[in-house]
Description:
3 domains, five-stranded mixed β-sheet
Amino acid sequence: MKEFFIVAISIIIFIVIFQVSKATEYLSILKGEETTRKQTNKLNASLLFGFLILGLIGVWYCNHLYYPKTLFPQGSASVEGETIDKMMMVTIIITGIVFFITQIILFWFSYRYQEKERRKAFYYPHNSTLELIWTTVPAITLTILVVIGLRFWFKITGDPPKEAIMVEITGHQFGWDVRYPGKDGVFGKKNFKLYNNPSGNTLAVDFDDPASHDDIRSTEMHLPVGVPVKLIIHSQDVIHNVGLPHFRMKMDAVPGIPTTLWFTPKYTTAEMKERTGNPNFVYEISCDQMCGKGHFSMRGVIVVESDIKYKTWLSLQSPEYKTIFKSETADSTTATADSIKTPLAKAN
């Protein structure tokens, strides 16, 4: 709150100075003073130079104030995210240097070359060499940054390491559903025609496919630390976006078009609680795409744990097939038991 008042007071002071200067200018015009334009120009030049100094101080102060509250000081929670952080910092450094140089020159020129009695503007309409330099250098720099980014993008959206586990995540208004393959390591097929099935098959899984009988469904994602994980991303309705800010990853969830992404978690949830000093820390799944009026509530949770705890959790989960067809399974079990009992009863 204190910082807000400081910023608000600074803005008010600037507005007051600006209004006073304009009022002085209008008053001079009404009096018919000939030096009005020169006086006003000098005042504006001074204000611009002052704005430069205050602006640079403001940039430093905001960075000092808000940078510790970002996710950067925590570091990336995934191995691949470290590369993204490096690319981000390189981009900020390059564009930051250009920003400071151009802004300082801009405001300094406005002050240094203000209108004066014996100064005449120099007409400089064209210089091919300068234009070639300030076009070519940024173009080459941006091309290099884009190529590096694309190479890494193709890597994390391509084939993961052989030891990677597969996790399917599906977005819908307004939540996330997670599915794991069973012991066979293969996901059962899906059929969009089965969406909103009365049996509760909201993920449109084709249970006629035997591979789906051991698939596990969960509303919470569990991942083993140090093991690559490939996300297979779906959407049931509109475009969503799987945002994983702590892992520095995100990917659109597009209806009818599965997308993929893989990364390797570095720290367990317990370790991140210690690193951040926050006992309530959780890895979040956010929807980074406006998807409707309930967009704000579309929050998922990821639990990163040791490989043993992950496998233990997985072994305690019941396949979705058994949950949906529980009554049918129970009936078939009863029928089987009766068929066994009947011959025994006749024998007795």
